[in-house]
Amino acid sequence: MERFKDVLKANNLKSTHQRLAILDCIDTYGHIDIDAIYDTVFKKYPSMSKATLYRNINDLISFHILEEVKLPNQKQQYEIRKIPHIHLLCKNCAKVEDFFVETHSLMETITLNSGFTISNSFIVMNGTCKECKV
Amino acid sequence: MERFKDVLKANNLKSTHQRLAILDCIDTYGHIDIDAIYDTVFKKYPSMSKATLYRNINDLISFHILEEVKLPNQKQQYEIRKIPHIHLLCKNCAKVEDFFVETHSLMETITLNSGFTISNSFIVMNGTCKECKV
DNA sequence: TCCTAAATAGGACTTATTCTTATTTAAGTT
DNA sequence: AACTTAAATAAGAATAAGTCCTATTTAGGA
């Protein structure tokens, strides 16, 4: 929790209960959509309005504290910003797993052949996780 | 246009004017969001309702004739389904470019190290296109 | 403890999407 | 070419998602 206070302070944002609860919730779940955040935080702060949630999500994204996670055929999810990584999505159980892998050579190939200067990438791999395999 | 009639027929879907206009529009633009599709098709068929557009987009996706294109910080776009490819998004001019590149070795690395069985991937590279570079 | 800019609550408002039903149409059959 | 019918559409109601407004509250520095 303290780490989020520091992050907020570093961005001149006040550490309100709502904000901390939102960050804590997203951190706990790893990847979560807006309704699930609302349900979770609402249990702790029943007075919190949806407007507050939406506003905070948007603010935290623009301060690069949160990041969108866009998965195929799913509602948008959110995660705490961390070291660049890709997402593995299990088609069976819908679990989302972070995975750290070097993508430089792929980016280089693309840069060389496309003329694009690539700064960052968003990669989702769709498949079946260990647990769901027979 | 004939090719779309064939695709629809192969899926037992009727070739309505609206459907063909939607497919033609998406094909022309390459990547386009729902409002832009509406504006374009509406010019040709002012009687078309939004419900028809939404219904068709969803149906065409479930028949794998269309695919979602989810880009960072943007409204969802749609494209005609084609050979697997990745998307290059220019941060400057917002242009979306299709790019064909071999991703097997990356997928293999991930499979080996994660235990996931990967079936397909969604890759977006964010950067600056040729034309927007100085 | 005081002060003030920032943040929240709550509801109004707007935009996005889906649902419902009467009407129309594509396309196969005669 | 007319007939038939299941599929598709139009139009608007209904619902869901997201933003805006403003009076009140609060975090956090002095």
Description:
The structure is a homodimer of 134-residue chains. Chain A is an alpha+beta fold and 134 residues long. Chain A has two domains: 2-80, Orthogonal Bundle (Arc Repressor Mutant, subunit A); 86-132, Ferric-uptake regulator, C-terminal dimerisarion domain (Dna Ligase, domain 1), CATH 3.30.1490.190. In chain A, 43% of the residues lie in helices and 23% in strands. Chain A has five helices and six strands. Chain A has helices at residues 2-10, 17-29, 34-44, 50-62, 104-114; strands spanning 32-33, 66-69, 77-80, 86-90, 96-99, 117-128. The longest helix of chain A is centred in the first third of the chain and has 13 residues, at 17-29. The mean pLDDT of chain A is 96. At the A-B interface, strand 4, helix 5 and strand 6 of A face strand 4, helix 5 and strand 6 of B. Chain B binds a DNA duplex (30 and 30 nucleotides) through helix 2 and helix 4.
Query: Into how many domains do the coordinates of chain A divide?
Result: 2
CATH fold field value of the largest domain in chain A: Arc Repressor Mutant, subunit A
The interface involving the most residues is between:
A-B, 36 and 36 residues
Q: Output the CATH homologous superfamily of the largest domain in chain A.
A: Winged helix-like DNA-binding domain superfamily/Winged helix DNA-binding domain
Number of strands of chain A: 6
What kind of sheet is the major sheet of chain A?
Answer: 3 strands, antiparallel
Question: What quaternary form is this?
Answer: homodimer
- The coarse silhouette of chain A is globular
What percent of residues of chain A adopt helix (DSSP H or I)?
40-55%
